[in-house]
Design a protein that fits this description.
alpha/beta, 7-stranded mixed β-sheet, 7 helices, 11 strands, globular
């Protein structure tokens, strides 16, 4: 199953439950942006690639950015609109690989968070995305990425990751490491009318390391200003 189909047929239905407390995560991202002194200057335009339900997009809107939120899944974008009390976020259903279509917005900030870049088809697609982001950023613009570093293989029982559970749902993620990909199996149990029902979805992620991404950033001419794990995701801020 492809990534788009995985979201449409499986993950979008419980994505909000999986990510947890929306307001807390939004507040955490606002704090991260402020701590790194990223402010709306010049055009004040920010683009959120793979925006999901809007954790980062709404945080940026609260900080004064004019935000365009891009995602291929309309169900998630509709949830984003419901979460956006200010009605200030512009949502666009599109493939994030088409980021150059937003060049006319003159973004001073582009973000791609939550392991989104590993959902691209291969490393070449990641390289192209970063090149395209650099090309449309304004002078002194910034790019923020967060992703999982898949350079070290998990083995045996470590491959079975308990993501989240409550009295009605249990989500487990199972990883299988290939040479350049990670095959991901999302195993969901849901309690309905007193019985547990199982749904399974399998898709692939690009196997990226932190050094891979830094090398790609440097090839665009951007410079890495921040590189550290944040909430279990490797997070990079790059300056144009």
């Amino acid at each position: 199953m492809g990534t788009k189909e995985h979201y449409e047929n499986h993950l979008a239905n419980f994505y909000s439950w999986m990510i947890g407390d929306f307001d807390q995560k939004r507040a955490n991202f606002e704090k991260f942006i402020e701590e790194n002194e990223i402010y709306p200057t010049s055009t004040k335009v920010a683009i959120d690639l793979g925006a999901g339900t809007g954790v980062q997009a709404i945080a940026l809107g609260n900080l004064g950015f004019k935000v365009t939120a891009v995602d291929f899944n309309q169900q998630l974008l509709s949830e984003l609109t419901s979460n956006d009390e200010s009605n200030a976020i512009n949502t666009v259903q599109a493939d994030i690989c088409d980021v150059k279509n937003f060049e006319s917005l003159q973004p001073q900030l582009i973000i791609c968070c939550g392991d989104t870049i590993t959902h691209l088809p291969d490393k070449l697609a990641v390289e192209k995305l970063l090149l395209d982001c650099e090309s449309i950023l304004t002078e002194n613009g910034k790019l923020i990425l967060s992703f999982r570093d898949y350079s070290s293989e998990l083995t045996d029982q470590q491959r079975f990751i308990p993501v989240k559970s409550d009295e009605n749902r249990i989500l487990t993620c199972i990883l299988e490491y290939l040479s350049d990909k990670v095959k991901v199996t999302d195993l969901l149990y849901e309690k309905q009318n007193g019985s547990w029902n199982q749904t399974v979805s399998i898709y692939e992620k690009v196997r990226l390391s932190t050094q891979d991404v830094i090398n790609m950033i440097e090839q665009t001419g951007m410079k890495t200003a921040f590189n550290s794990p944040v909430n279990r995701l490797q997070t990079i801020i790059a300056n144009k």
